[in-house]
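Subject: mismatched residue count in predicted assembly?

I count 435 residues in my input, but I want to confirm that the predicted structure covers every chain. Input:
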Amino acid sequence: MNLRPFTVVLIVPTGVGASIGGFAGDALPVARAIAQISDTLITHPNVLNGAQLYWPIPNALYVEGYALDKFAQGCWGLQPVHQNRIGLILDRGIEPELQLRQLQAADAARATLGLNITDYVLTDRPLEVELRMSESGASWGTIANPDSLLRAAEKLITQAKVQAIAVVARFPEDEGSKALENYRHGTGVDPLAGAEAVISHLIVRTFKIPCAHAPALLPLPLDPHLSPRSAAEEIGYTFLPCVLAGLSKAPQFVTLGSAERDADRERKYTQLPITADRVDAVVIPATACGGSAILSLSGRSTVQIIAVGDNKTQMQANPEKLGIKALQVNSYLEAIGVLVALRAGITTASLGADISPLRCLSDSTKQI
Amino acid sequence: MTTHFISAEVDLPNTAEELDSAIKIELEKHGEPLRWAVTEVDVDRQKAVVEGYVLVKLPATASPVTA
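Triage response: the counts match. Full output below for your records.
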């Protein structure tokens, strides 16, 4: 019996034009497959969110990107929960009818899924999201009133005692733009993703509780050439259901480091949190190895980094250029094979036709 | 508080862990790093190109900053 749980981190960075996972929940099949061969799968909203569509994976942990970076650095642990009480923040910039759509989506999640969504707050000022593209081709964006966002979150935490926060911000309509057309046709970069990450990062950084974001947008005219990869975002009025489902069981964050915190943790939880030293493997697009989480995990000798070539991105940060020791594979199917071998304790070198001879290390120490 | 986009170049150190630290030090010159990634590596010049966001607590212009 192997007592060490097999723990895999799956990352598809958001807003970098990933050909698999750069659209609307289109890395979910990869996550479902990897979860089948893992004891614990740690991944993030960009992988698991498919607007109205999602899939409950019992052994998957839904961890926002900022928290995933902190986890990889060894600063935060992940504490699984049975259910979080969720609060909802609505951007004051959302038109009343569109606000009502979001509230009805939350009500639907309460009635059909049994989620514990207790309160919502309208921000005291419009958040005013602005979208941009960087020189590298990644999407990014800013919000004009981050303090308003944080005041709303604080109100939910202090007054309603929520344990996770869903944010819906009004995003600029981009109808008719080439970027949106490309995205709907399954190419290019998600123009909203970079700004979404800023919103959730701000809340997670400040309050250290799970958070995820869904944009508020008006429905687009029907497009007969819509890509299957983007289609999940065009089957309803909101993108909120997947966020609520993910947050309802998202792990809480345990700040690691001090004895006082450790004692507090023991009082609150009977089960120890999952920490970075439990990670066995990370699966990442081969051109997107330049994020904080990968750089942190690459320093751990027990972590196997698996870089997937098929999942193209706008980034050009390959592991070899960064000095990261990684196993390069062509596809997720191949990555899954590597994970099966790792879990079984089989070195992948033994699975090929050619097995190189043992190396004889030269003795560099001087004999006395 | 404002969020700013930063683009910067960082010398490529010997290890990925050292690169992680070097990027944080570079971004901290402009604010508190919130999200960043190496987007490209110039092997000949031994430079990593980094894009990211920082949080700035003092009021400032909302235009992108290039470092």
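Residues 2-56 of chain B form one domain. Marking this ticket as 'not a bug'.
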